[in-house]
Write a structure and sequence with these properties.
mainly beta; four-stranded antiparallel β-sheet; about 210 residues
Length: about 210
């Protein structure tokens, strides 16, 4: 994703060249591909209209809160790859960054909302939200920024400012998500992946 250009780049790995640039939302961060569709998280949210309060970000007008000036929308673009265009977007939390796909469920880490949006890719709607607050009354600012759906059905979420990986039972039909606990890490974890063969979870610390 090209965050300065607000585009998704398609690269031919054989020739090491960019063969397509597709307009998406503001400040794209991550991309997940499923079949003919790409999902792109946009940290800067939707495109601004003339009615919005905005701040300039490297030439892009970002929709912001009138009081504190930070981005007040977050989106995930839905891109039709064969057509080479954005065909819609999903409204999620603020500052969406990492994403992970399991079947028809897309998890989106909303770094500035302390939450994870659970998106049904078939309907393109958010059908659940996981609040990542590690304990009741915890201060704001856990910064979820990495996701890994584990083989046993649990979801691992890196909490950058808590120096930990949180584990959840994701929401399912008829029940909310369940917080299971924290695994301590080194400073500011930012990515997590499961090594199923070794039965380990590997964490990158920023």
């Amino acid at each position: 994703a090209y965050s300065v250009l607000n585009q998704l780049g398609v690269i031919d790995v054989a020739s090491d060249s960019v063969v397509q640039q597709i307009d998406v939302g503001n400040a794209p961060h991550s991309v997940v591909v499923s079949g003919r569709t790409a999902w792109v998280s946009n940290e800067g949210g939707r495109r601004a209209t003339s009615d919005d309060t905005t701040n300039d970000s490297d030439g892009t007008a970002i929709v912001v809160d009138k009081v504190h000036g930070a981005a007040k929308t977050g989106t995930v673009s839905v891109v039709d790859l064969p057509a080479g265009k954005e065909i819609g977007h999903v409204d999620v939390g603020l500052h969406p960054t990492a994403m992970a796909l399991r079947g028809s469920t897309l998890y989106v880490a909303n770094t500035n909302s302390d939450s994870v949006s659970v998106v049904d890719t078939r309907t393109r709607r958010v059908h659940g939200t996981i609040a990542v607050t590690p304990y009741p009354g915890a201060p704001y600012g856990s910064h979820p920024n990495g996701l890994a759906p584990l083989a046993d059905g649990r979801l691992a979420v890196t909490l950058g400012r808590d120096n930990a990986v949180a584990l959840y039972e994701p929401p399912a039909r008829g029940r909310a998500s369940t917080y299971l606990g924290l695994l301590p890490t080194a400073w500011y974890p930012s990515a997590v992946v499961e090594d199923q063969r070794r039965h380990q979870v590997l964490v990158v610390n920023g």
